[in-house]
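Hi support team,

I submitted a single chain yesterday and got back a structure, but I'm not sure I'm reading the token output correctly. Could someone confirm the output below corresponds to the sequence I sent? I've pasted both exactly as they appear in my results page.

Thanks,
R.
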Amino acid sequence: MRVGIEKVNLYGGRAYLTIADLASARGGSLAELERRQMVPYEARAIVPPYEDPVTLAVNAAERLLTDADREQIELVVVATESAVDFGKPISTWVQRFCRLPAHSRNFEVKHMCYGGTAALRVAASWVASNVRPGKKALVINSDLSRTRNHVQTEDDDLGELMAGGSAVAMLVSAEPQVFELELEKAGYWTNELSDALRPNSRTEIITGQTSFYSYLDALEETYERYEHLVGEVDFETYFRKNIYHAPFPGMTKVAHKTLLNRLGVYDKAAIEASWRERVADSTHFARRIGSAYGASTFICLLGMLHAGTGFAAGDRFSVFAYGSGCQAEFYSGLVGPDATTYVRGLDVDQHLDSRVRFTVDQYEQVEKACEVNIDERTYHPLGQDVGDLYAQRYDGQRLLVLEDVRDYHRHYRWS
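Hi R., thanks for writing in. Yes, this is the structure output for that exact sequence:
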């Protein structure tokens, strides 16, 4: 049975901050930041107080689903490391506000940036089991960063760049028009490690160097396992393009270099040319969003499919997912017959272009408001609007927003 992604959609919020503005405000050099990042960032998403992982998830899924899709969905899996409750899963709100059948199974999964891949693999295996022929799964990864005052990193200026919020929703079925998973071709590797933590509702701790090298160790281990299961492959010909988890876009360069070194390629010019041909297009949307956590690999897949150059339907892409803690997976899939046409039809660039550009001062006002709300029993986020954003980009647009929190109960409504 063919199984994989039938539809996909990205929701990148309604406001953004340019990295140039942020670098200037922090007294740093944009050129130096770009040198250290290796692949320049353009912007990072800003999530206002009246959006959260629930609204991000629903707003990503709403554009994706038709009434016919809704009737066929019997499994909903939401991956997040930004849950709004320690017990109640985001998936319950998704089931409600996306108007999905009551006779469906829903749950939430957590594994840092691996969560989205875990959710996809579970959903794909369920579809492949054919226990409910013709039925489909909705998989969403929804995340946002902590406020900068509560993110502890070894490098503060880079840490602030690696922040943001977004969601990717995927319809998984036996009609993989976008990307067909090769379910049996997957190498995975796990290793207990505390390279990133969210020990409470306020704090995010990122041990950059430890996470960096763990990522690379996991990449080599999972690729070796992939070959162990599939048989030795010619990397250059077996995979047409390569998708990597991108906590920042430049990490794709380091990852690709690591695999090429393992295969005996050390020439710098050859490595750069290979990255530009096989990887660079995947960073197209990632450069405009900031950190996407578990949605990262899917945003990179969207970027590659949007470019639509150097591959054809049926070509094989490799995909590498990494989540701190840690879990990693190297797997592969085939480009669907309508992939590029479909992804371009989403007009993600227009969606990102339509966001409101915030100043650094406005961004800091949003951060302060969100920080005040953490763990509050009652608050009214719609009264904390900044820059008239709600009137400009939400009012009348039928986007889900957090209306208020009363005695810890969250109340949502459509804008």
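A quick pointer for reading it: Residues 4-177+348-414 form a domain with the Peroxisomal Thiolase; Chain A, domain 1 fold (CATH 3.40.47.10). Let us know if anything else looks off.

Best,
Support desk
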